[in-house]
Amino acid sequence: xxxxxxxxxxxxxxxxxxxxxxxxxxxxxxxxxxxxxxxxxxxxxxxxxxxxxxxxxxxxxxxxxxxxxxxxxxxxxxxxxxxxxxxxxxxxxxxxxxxxxxxxxxxxxxxxxxxxxxxxxxxxxxxxxxxxxxxxxxx
Length: 139
Fold this sequence. Notes:
Blueprint: E1 8-14, H1 19-24, E2 31-34, E3 37-40, E4 47-48, E5 51-52, H2 63-81, H3 85-95, E6 110-111, E7 117-118, E8 127-133
Parallel strand pairs: 1-8
Antiparallel strand pairs: 2-3, 2-8, 4-5, 6-7
């Protein structure tokens, strides 16, 4: 986060109690967006069925898998900040959709941790990462 101070805003939503997740039809977690592009889904972390299996960042508990995710996420945020949104969308499409996944995140209406409303205009010119999660899920 320090790398993007003032340039990016990170938003985290509790999947189990998120009107945002309900509104966009997100039925599994975690889902990670950069701006309005879905860049990671549960299967990428190996969260399929009852346990971890193959995925870009599986096994998630492995430090190398977490480092790979951080590097990929940083690269995607950097693309947005450099005005290369089309390249971000191209990389995201290479991952391929999964049944029930949404291709992009519609305009959102959320509040910050202090309860103040956040408007889409507040994100103009900055990369936005949204992660849907659940209280029973490891970070």
